[in-house]
């Protein structure tokens, strides 16, 4: 079982987070309400006597309705994040393009002005993008002051494994060299083009970074990409106002903030100007990642019209949607809750009251 839209539950700014949190809160609210009602009955007199007087209201039915509402909400949240099963393995022949994702692993990506950190947000964006691929070959370039490469492949799980545990501490040279990373991505695409032939499929580069580069010339690399007909889509990670760059240990613990040579705190800001220039020069587009949405989704939409070529047939597990197994029971339970009355039938109530009156008459006699 996997969850296609698990990102709807995190970070806390996502509505799904509050929907999920409302499940235990609703349980607590009903418990407090029932407790308050009992206290009110105790204040009126003997609980058993007051209960007999209010016989028309069924306590068990009221409890059942509360349980149903909690279940409806819980099932609805589960359905909303789209549970999927792997399904059967089938041989498929897919068409796709070549994509190299260039991802920033410089220490400025530890800044926490986006989600838990810029690095965490970038990894979320990339994970969503890879999960949405169908037949495209993907290569990865991780960079700081140097680069690490993962060649073009359709093994998406292997691609995700490459970057999932990678951190700035794994980069041999610190700093930010966007130009060097773009050049590495261009070389990777050139090798694929030479092996397959010119014009077989479109080639694109997707750059995820906060845009700050003090070591290389990214615009020169963008010129080469444009000359080769490679579009570069850029995704800005970070805020325009910027944030302090924390010092993070190998264990992931905070150890203060970075300072410059004058002992002033280092503030990292999103450099959108450079990213816009890179994308404009290559006929790509710039997008900004936000807490509320995935910028890679917009980039994926932009790529839909590009030329694709057939890839080798491969075994794939076709994912099967399972949300209906949760949504349909939730709908039925909601109908039951709407039709279930908290009150007993009028005939039962009259019969019960008649019995109390008869007992009262016998007692007086």
Sheet with most strands: strand arrangement: 7-6-5-8-9-14
Task: Please identify the oligomeric state.
Answer: single chain
**CATH architecture tag of the largest domain:** 3-Layer(aba) Sandwich
Order of helices and strands: EHHHEEEEHEEHHEHEEEEEHEHEEEHH
Number of helices: 11
Low-confidence segments, given as residue ranges, are none
For the largest beta-sheet, the strand count, sense and barrel status come to:
6 strands, mixed
* Tertiary shape: globular
Primary descriptors:
365 residues, alpha/beta, Rossmann fold, six-stranded mixed sheet, 11 helices, 45% helix, 18% strand, globular
Question: What does this molecule look like?
Answer:
This protein has 365 residues and is α/β, with parallel strands linked by helices. It folds into two domains: 126 residues, no CATH class; 228 residues, von Willebrand factor, type A domain (Rossmann fold, 3-Layer(aba) Sandwich), CATH 3.40.50.410. 45% of the residues lie in helices and 18% in strands. The chain is built from eleven helices and 17 strands. The strands form six sheets. The protein has a six-stranded mixed beta sheet, sandwiched between helices. A three-stranded antiparallel beta sheet has the order 1-2-17. The protein is globular. The termini are far apart. The mean pLDDT is 83.
Quick recap:
The chain has 365 residues and is α/β, with parallel strands linked by helices. Helix content is 45%, strand content 18%.
What is the fold's blueprint, element by element?
Blueprint (H helix, E strand, L loop, with lengths): L1 E2 L11 H30 L2 H7 L5 H22 L2 E3 L3 E4 L2 E2 L1 E7 L13 H14 L5 E7 L3 E7 L2 H9 L13 H19 L6 E7 L8 H10 L3 E6 L6 E2 L1 E3 L5 E4 L9 E2 L3 H10 L4 E3 L6 H9 L5 E2 L3 E4 L2 E2 L2 H16 L6 H19 L1
Parallel strand pairs: 5-6, 5-8, 8-9, 9-14
Antiparallel strand pairs: 1-2, 2-17, 3-16, 4-15, 6-7, 10-13, 11-12
Helix pairs in contact: 1-3, 3-10, 4-5, 4-9, 6-7, 7-8
